[in-house]
Amino acid sequence: MKFPENFLWGGAVAANQCEGAYNEDGKGIDIQDIMPHGIKGAPTAEPTEDNLKLTAIDFYHRYKEDIALFAEMGFKVFRTSIAWSRIFPNGDEETPNEKGLAFYDAVFDECRKYGIEPLVTISHYETPLHLAKRYDGWTSHELIGFYERYCRTIFNRYKGKVKYWLTFNEINSVLHAPLLSGGILTPKEKLSEQGLYQACHHELVASALATKLAREIMPEAKIGCMILAMPTYPLTPAPDDMIAVMKANHFNDFFGDVHARGVYPGYMKRYFREKGIEIKSTPEEERLLRENTVDFISFSYYMSICEGASGSSGEGNLMGGKKNPYLKESEWGWQIDPKGLRYVLNRFYDRWQKPLFIVENGLGAKDELVAGGPDGKTVEDDYRIAYLNDHLLQVGEAIEDGVPVMGYTTWGCIDLVSASTAQMSKRYGFIYVDRNDDGTGSLARYRKKSFGWYKEVIATNGESLK
Ligand code: BGP
């Protein structure tokens, strides 16, 4: 199995799921601070003590120790996000918060010290709360200007330190989780499709604007979009099931199509027409989209789903869809499908002809800390090793198929708080963090068995995979 030279091996986290320090050094409150239950349960009025993200794994104070562990594994790249509300506490101020800027300087410098490239998500499910309350998040056109100012600030500050940028985490998830993904406080059941797709338009325009700015300010940078990838299989070979798959794909492909081709696809225009949705757009915005397509497409991959013409969707999994009788699932009901990753890599490259970057993949599982390992305690996580090994073999197959894959960052390379359930017990890391769902724990770090395994994979550039 041959991975390209300079393949970017690494791991990924997001600010809100690892940093903690939710109100330190001038940080504003963001939507995660009032979402103690993830995507289930209503947001709270104020940050509450049961919200694990307020402290998370305290990366804000322990980043040096954690980055040293990533370096020990041989990471070439580390994906994290900038918490927008550390830079602009409310989101709509004119001047940034210097302490927030200084924190990310320190994080990126620490990465560079070890030769690790930072890969930065500009907006990862952490819209400043004020933007949600005052403007209803991305439903408002004004967000484009605030995001532009934020991008200009961080691009000018970190040019030369950060080469790889992603505009919005899992941009297509706004259709399913408007608050988490789009900072939209109007409850999903009350939000009109008109409002929802207008919000998508604003994000797409903002993403194109960020791409334009990045090219002006940091000509050496590479900027990509980020999509939640879920390959969809027909439940049966019935033509109607295949059409159902095609339609389900449209709602996700639409985001990649605009990012890669710069225009709204015909199937989406038809949908808008038939639903009476009129996207407010200007010729200037259309030009922005057309002239600023992305350098690469990145995506998360956890599972595939099935679709069919009959019956209702939403049986399981993150974004609806139906269960596949041929696949096993994780303890959280996410169906495990390594071959789906090869399929999605081929499909995305066929469609968009842009380099691809897998920026999230991994197994959320319950771990048991036992005696052993270099730190005195460890986790024998053979199930995680098997999951990652099998997925990486399929990445290798896709590379053999001719797909240009830039890199691979496992999700949650260190245990962190889950996005969908806000639990600590849904662990993804190579590094165990001693913190429990009830908030207890010392926050100590322990290398799991998978730590040494991944180190070997990186050191051999994938040749140790079996
Ligand atoms: C993606 C998000 C991440 C993340 C991951 C795993 O949807 O981009 O933020 O956490 O999924 O999901 P979870 O944490 O719910 O297990």
Overview in brief:
With 466 residues, the protein is of the alpha/beta class. Helices cover 39% and strands 13% of the residues.
Q: From N to C, what is the helix and strand string? A: EHHEHHEHHEHHEEHHHEEHEEEHEEEH
Number of domains: 1
Point out poorly predicted stretches: none
CATH topology: TIM Barrel
The CATH architecture category equals Alpha-Beta Barrel
Query: How are the strands of the largest sheet arranged?
Result: 1-2-3-4-5-7-9-12
Please give the radius of gyration in angstroms.
21 Å
- Distance separating the two termini: 9 Å
Structure commentary:
- The chain is α/β, with parallel strands linked by helices and about 475 residues long.
- The protein has one domain: Glycosidases (TIM Barrel).
- The protein has 14 helices and 14 strands.
- The chain has helices spanning about 15-20, 60-75, 85, 100-115, 130-135, 140-160, 180, 195-215, 240-260, 265-275, 285-290, 340-350, 380-400, 450-460, and strands at about 10, 75-80, 115-120, 165, 220-230, 230-235, 295-300, 305, 355-360, 370, 375-380, 405-410, 430-435, 445.
- The strands form four sheets. Strands 1-2-3-4-5-7-9-12 form an eight-stranded parallel barrel, surrounded by five helices. The chain has a two-stranded parallel ribbon with strand order 6-8.
- β10 and β11 (about 375-380) form a beta hairpin.
- The N and C termini lie close together (about 10 Å).
- About 50% of the residues are buried.
- The mean pLDDT is about 95.
- The structure holds 6-O-phosphono-beta-D-galactopyranose (BGP).
- 6-O-phosphono-beta-D-galactopyranose binds near residues 125 and 420.
